[in-house]
Design brief:
transmembrane helix, single chain, two-stranded antiparallel sheet, metal ion binding, alpha+beta, nuclease, hydrolase activity
Length: 413
């Protein structure tokens, strides 16, 4: 049996077909019965066609009830804006004026375009998230709750902020001194600690990290925990003039030095200009001061190794040398005191650690150069002013230089 039905309201053809013989379906029926059954089937077909058309043509659009989860912005928008200067420094480790300066310098890099979907997070808030994480080392969830943003957003902002500081600010704030700036460093070491011809102090520091999945044994240092090494050169004002970070904690400081840019410059005679002073009959070039872990070079002076046979003069030289060299130890202390994330285990991928360290060292210099004193439990560390970039050296026997300085300090005693 076949029906081909059409309707003006539905404008759809419906074909109802069966392969069963008529008698099997209906039996011996009269013409009136056939006519009634046909009309019933036709009506059912028309209703079905109209129902299908309504489903496809009148489908309502799906609407979202929630686009962004509502989060409290009160801490950043209200509490922080009402902080006193002391409270601001306590939370963000820098003054409000320095914070505004960093925001302005990074504005082009961190600003995001506003779209029809939502407003972007402001530059001030992005800098606030990055600085707060560096200053406290708090977990992403805690910072997300404070700033009223998602945890994944905190992670992205922290990484973007550190990378922006490294690319935009670091070239201006971490550079080897030269010219008048170098002369200022030399005079600073001479005036503060009585050490002549000193262009800076060099040392290494371990930055704790979570053990990486790959080659974790290489990062296990002699102190018994996993770390990445930071080598820093510091001037008389506790500012970093060169940093080199990323080597595993098990590597010796001397090996890190040999692979650094500072070593390459010094060995080529380009670290400092070839200027020397005659001291006790010996031409003494401009030098860095280092601890016993480093090799003795004409551009790198270390103290006498204490094997129990040192003379009184040699011990006194070591005392004078140590006083001047402690500048770099003090700088590391101020660095980790300001940016507490470096004093905790960095829970990030090990490939990101050098960028985070670079950002911390750069912001450390920004704070120091903006005149922000650093206070710790033991009191206030002396504060100082500016610096700049580097040249070559005079090749003189380093042991003769050390002996000449030993005699100088003894004569001034």
């Amino acid at each position: 049996m076949r029906f081909n039905a059409s309707s003006d309201s539905c404008s759809e053809n419906v074909l109802i077909e069966t392969s069963e013989p008529r008698d099997a379906m209906w039996g011996p029926v009269t013409g009136a019965a056939v006519s009634g059954a046909s009309l019933a089937l036709l009506a059912a077909a028309l209703l079905y066609a109209c129902h299908r058309k309504r489903l496809f043509s009148i489908a309502a659009p799906v609407r979202r009830n929630v686009w962004v989860r509502s989060r409290s912005q009160e801490w950043w928008d209200t509490d922080v804006s009402g902080f006193t200067n002391t409270e601001f420094i306590s939370n963000l480790r820098m003054t409000r004026s320095t914070f505004d300066y960093v925001c302005e310098r990074l504005r082009l890099t961190l600003s995001r375009e506003e779209t029809c979907l939502r407003r972007p997070i402001t530059v001030q808030k992005r800098v606030g998230v990055g600085v707060y994480w560096l200053a406290t080392g708090a977990c992403y969830r805690t910072i997300a709750n404070l700033f009223g943003i998602a945890k994944s957003t905190v992670c992205s902002i922290v990484h973007e902020f550190c990378e922006a500081v490294r690319r935009v600010l670091m070239p201006h704030y971490i550079k080897l001194p030269k010219g008048d700036a170098l002369q200022e460093v030399i005079e600073g070491f001479q005036q503060r600690w009585g050490f002549p011809q000193c262009g800076g102090a060099i040392d290494g520091s371990h930055i704790p990290i979570i053990a990486p999945e790959d080659n974790h044994a290489e990062y296990f240092n002699r102190k018994g925990w996993h770390s990445v090494l930071l080598q820093g050169v510091v001037d008389h004002r506790f500012c970093f003039t060169n940093i080199y970070a990323g080597w595993p904690g098990s590597v010796h400081d001397a090996r890190v030095l040999r692979n650094s840019h500072v070593y390459s410059l010094a060995e080529r005679g380009e670290l400092f200009p070839p200027v020397s002073n005659l001291i006790m009959g010996v031409q003494v070039p401009i030098m860095l001061l280092g601890d016993p872990a480093y090799p003795l070079r004409s551009w790198l002076l270390k103290g006498y190794c204490d094997t129990g046979t040192l003379t009184a003069e040699q011990k006194y030289f070591n005392e004078c040398h140590s006083r001047a060299r402690m500048t770099v130890e003090c700088a590391f202390g101020r660095l980790k005191g300001r940016w507490r994330c470096l004093a905790k285990r960095l829970d990030v991928d090990v490939s990101l650690v050098p960028t985070i360290i670079s950002a911390c060292c750069t912001l450390h210099n920004v704070c120091e150069m903006h005149g922000e004193n650093y206070e710790e439990a033991g009191g206030t560390v002396p504060h100082v002013e500016r610096w700049a970039e580097g040249g070559g050296f005079v090749d003189v026997q380093p042991s003769r230089i050390r002996e000449a300085l030993t005699q100088l300090f003894l004569s001034q005693r």
